[in-house]
Structure formats: C-alpha cells, structure tokens
Amino acid sequence: MAKRRKPRVSSSLSAGRPPNFLNNFTPLVSAKASRTIIRSHHTLQKRLSQAIEDCDTKRANLLRNEIEAQGGLRGYQQASISGQSNNRGGDSSRILMEWLKSQDQSGKPYSLRPGDKMKMLEVGALKITNACSKSALFDVHRIDLNAQEDGIVQQCFMERPIPSSEDDKFDVISLSLVLNYVPNPATKGNMLRRTTQFLRSGTSGVPGPTGEMAELFPSLFLVLPISCVTNSRYMNEERLKDILESLGYHMVKRKATAKLFYCLWHYNPVKNCPKTLFKKTQVNPGLNRNNFAIVLN
C-alpha cells in the first residue's frame, strides 16, 4: 500500500481559515449567541486542521461546508466584534493601556518627545476604535486576513515583508486572540519567532519611550484564551515562558481572568538565547484537556 504523503505545513495563516462567506450576514446581539458562534467556530477550525493534517479531504470539505453554513470567517468576526463592545467588557487593548498608565509615575501623560508616537502593529485587527487607537501614545498599523473596516489592511502577518530598516519596525506588536486561531503548532511557533524581526532593537537611535516606560518596549502584547495555558495537554504558563524567553522575550506584565490570559513581553535581542527546539510534548496530561500547542523547530 502506498504511503500517504504528509502535507507541507503552510506558512500562510489563510490556509487554516475559511473563506469569507455570507456577505449579508447579520451579527447577533445576544452575548450568549456570540459566545456560541465563537466556540463552535474554533472547534470546527481545530477539526478542519486535523482533517487537513490527516489528508482526509472528504472530512475537510464537510467541515468547510459546516463552517460556511455558520457564517464563515465573517460570522466569526462579527461575533468577536460584538464581544468587544463596551457593555460586554471587551477590547483587550484596555488592559495594555492600564498597564502603561500604571507604569508612568512621572505625572506626565507619557515619557515621549513632543509629537512622537510609538509604532504599534495590531495583527488581527477588528476595529479602528479600540483603546490603543484612541490614545495619543500609539501610531497604530492594523492588519487582518479579512479586513472589516477602512483603516485595516487586508494582509497575512506571515506574508508581510520583513522591515528593511529600524524606522520601519515597531515598538509593540499586538497578538490579541490571534495565536490560538493559527491552524497548527509549528506555524504558531513561526509566528512568535517572526515577531522579533518586526520589533526595534531598543538601541537603534530611533526616538522612543524613555525612563520607566523604556522598561516595557519594544514588546509583544499577547492575549490567549485562559484554557490555552491552564487546560492544555501541551502548554502551561511555565512552558509558554520558556518558549518566549528562548526568543529573547521577558514577561513584564500578566493578568489572568476567568476567560483570558493577558501578558506583555519585553524584547531584548541581546539576551536572545541560542536557537532552542520545543516539540509537542505533554506537560499536563488528562482526558478533558485541549490540544493547544506551540512548536519551535
């Protein structure tokens, strides 16, 4: 019997996302309905990724049809946007802004030169009106696989050209509920490694934060569902820390809620360790665990 060829892992995130169906999709306003859509979409995406990995074309097509019937990517995004509304406690960037305000003890708005702003790359942006966008601190560059508003560039982060100069790099990259959407563990690891190529070195001479604020930047703002770090067979907070520290990151802020895990990682390329491999290894065995994992090859 001929051996099935294992599919090549695509570096493009679009390989793991369904197309944009149902342009006339009407977003549900019910919080319960929004949560149901989001949970169901993530479950179907995981099953689709597994079917693709198993070369099960028939099952993959059935799952794509099921995702389409539920509204596809557009339906998922509308549910996510609904969940970010103020009356539901959404917008994870508010946590980042709270951390920055608590860091600056000078009494001044922020420790930047007059007229200067820090550059932020927001990956997976849904709206242009979140807390970071409204602040005077950031010049926000927004991208998403399926841009929903003017001001958001339709682009895959894994295909975005590497900056050619420090001026083109960023002070902070936001991956809020993005990494958990990436279809396979190896691409998750590649995404985290790739973020380091978009961050300023901190010694480039490009104007940036000073004083206490400089202790936080350049940085990665990462938000994950809490279950990714508390209920996964292959991930916990300690392993996440080991993986990111191997890339030159150091956790400076963290917050865990009943649903989400927020963390801010300062990047210091000087402390970048030799390349370390992290395989898909069980760290938290159990029947009722999820399979969230990050692999660094």
Q: How would you describe this protein?
A:
The longest helix is centred in the first third of the chain and has 23 residues, at 31-53. Helix content is 30%, strand content 14%. By secondary structure, the protein is an alpha/beta fold. The chain has helices spanning 31-53, 57-69, 72-83, 93-103, 131-134, 185-195, 227-230, 237-246; strands at residues 118-123, 138-144, 153-154, 172-176, 219-225, 249-256, 260-267. It has 8 helices and 7 strands, in the order ααααβαβββαβααββ. A 7-stranded mixed β-sheet has the order 3-2-1-4-5-7-6, sandwiched between helices. The radius of gyration is 19 Å and the shape is globular. Helix 1 runs antiparallel to helix 2 (57-69) and helix 1 (31-53) packs across helix 3.
